[in-house]
Amino acid sequence: MPLISRLATRAYYRYTVGGARVPAEGPVLLVANHNNSLMDPAFVTVAARREVSFLAKSTLFTHPQIGWLVKLVGSIPVYRAQDDPKLLGQNRDIFVAVHAALANGAAVGIFPEGTSHSGSRLSPLKTGAARIALGAAKRIGGAFPIIPVGLVFRDRNSFRSEVRVVVGDAFDWSDLASRADEKYAVRELTARIDGAMRRVTLNLDSWEDAALVHVAEQIWAAEHGSPRDSEATVSRLAMTASVLQRFRSRGDAEWQMTARELRAHARMLQRMGLSPQALKEDVSWPAAARWTLLRLPLLAAIPLASLAMLAYWPPLIGARWMVARSREGPDSFSTMNVLSISFQSILWTFLLAGAAGWSLGWWWGLATLILLPLTATVAAIVAERRRLGWLAVRRFFVRHLHRRRLGRMRKRQAMIAAHLNELLELGMQ
Predict the structure, then answer these.
(1) Dist. CA 276–CA 97, nearest whole Å
(2) ∠ at Cα 337 (334, 339), nearest 5°?
(3) What single-letter DSSP state applies at residue 86?
C-alpha cells in the first residue's frame, strides 16, 4: 500500500528519504529499527517505493483497534514465546511462506529488534531476519539484497516534526548463503545486519542527548555549508552521538564545557525563534519583499481554509480524546493519532454529506462528500504554509531589529562550530 503509506506519513510528519534505492524488482529483505509502532512499516514502504509484506507479532492481528489494518496490508504473523508458547510451532509454516515469497521476487520487511520500543538505541537483534535470509537463499540459489532502513525521528510524537529516512547499501553475505555451519552463519549474518542498521540509525545513551546531538549537527552543518539531505544528516548525527559517548565515558571536561555552550546557544536561538541555519543567513529587504509578494495568493485561500478547518474541528477533538484515553505505550502515540483522526474524519464527512443530502437534496450531499475532503486538504496545506511563512517573516524582522545581538550570536556559533570540529576530529581518531 505505497499510496496509503505516503498519505499517512505525509499527513503527520515532515520527512525526507535519502540514501540508496531499493531494487524495483526481485527478492529483497528490508530490515529497519522499530520505535514508532505501525508508522515504521509505512515509512519503510515509502522508502521501498514498492509493495512490502511485513512480519508482525501475532498479537497485533487480534488488536481491537489496529488488527484490521495489520491484516489489510498483508502482514505475516509471527508467534512469540512470551505471547503463547503453544503456538511457536506455527512459525515453521510462516518461515516456509516467507521463503516462498522471497523466492517469487517479493519484498519482505522485518524489524529485527523483535518489537516496537521506546529505547534511545537499537535493541539486541533477534536471529529471525538472518534465519529467513539463509532459508530463502537455499530456495533462490544464493544471496539476495538485504537492505537496512534507518528511521530517525526528531520527535516521534509531535505533529509535523521532522523524520529522516535513510536507505542503506546492501552488504555482501554470499559467503554465508551456502555455509554448512548453520549456527555460525546465523550468528555472523545477524552481526552484519546489526552493523548495517547501526550505520543508518541514531543510537544515543539516552533520549536526553537527542536535543544536544541535533543542535550540534545543525550548527556544524550551518557553519560548514554541509548538505541537509537525510543520508548526510543522519551520518553526522551518528558521528556526533558516537563522539559524545566516547568523551562521556572518559569523563572529559572539555566536552562537558562544549555541551554547556551548546545548550545555552540552543536556548538563545529558541527565544529568538531562529535555527542555526537561519542565524547564519542574512536576508535583504528586496529579497524579503519578493518572497512576500509570491505568497500573497495564499491570503485568498485563508477564509476558505478556516471554514474547512472549523468543519473538521469535532473529529479532531474526538480523536484527541480517544488517544488521551488509549492504553497504548508512547511508541504507539502517533499511530493511534493518525488512525483516530482518519477514522473520525471519514465518519464525520459521511455524516455531514448525509445531512446535506437529506435537507438540501442528493446533489448537495454528493458535492459535500467530494468537495469537503478536498477543501480540508487544501486547508491543511494553507495552514502549514501560513505557519512556515509567519516563522520566516518573524525571523526576518528579528534579524533586522537585533543586528548587534545576532552578530554576537553568529560569532559565538562560529566558535562553537570550530570547537565541535576539533572535538569530532579528536574523537574519531
Answers:
(1) 50
(2) 110
(3) G
State the virtual CA torsion across 182, 187, 193, 195 in degrees, nearest 10.
Answer: -150
Q: What pLDDT is recorded for position 84?
A: 56
Q: Measure the CA–CA gap between 2 and 14, rounded to whole angstroms.
A: 17
Domain boundaries along the sequence of the chain: 2-198, 208-273+404-427, 285-402
Tell me the C-alpha distance between 386 and 83, whole Å.
48
Residue 26: CB atoms within 10 Å: 12
Q: Which three cell numbers stand for residue 333?
A: 502515540
The owner of cell 525526507 is: 16
204 φ, ψ (degrees, to nearest 5): -110, 155
Share of the chain above pLDDT 70, in %: 80
Q: How far is 289 from 301, CA to CA, in rounded Å?
A: 20
Question: If DSSP codes are grouped into helix, strand and coil, which group holds residue 162?
Answer: strand
pTM summary value = 0.84
**pLDDT score for 38:** 79
Please name the residues in contact with 195: beta carbons below 8 A apart, sequence gap of 6 or more: 171
Cell digits of residue 120: 534511545
Distance CA 20, CA 169 (A): 6
pLDDT digits (tens, 9 = 90+) for 58-91: 666 666 566 566 666 667 766 555 555 555 556 5
CATH number of 2-198: 3.40.1130.10
Task: List Cβ neighbours of 360 (8 Å cut-off, separation of 6 or more).
Answer: none
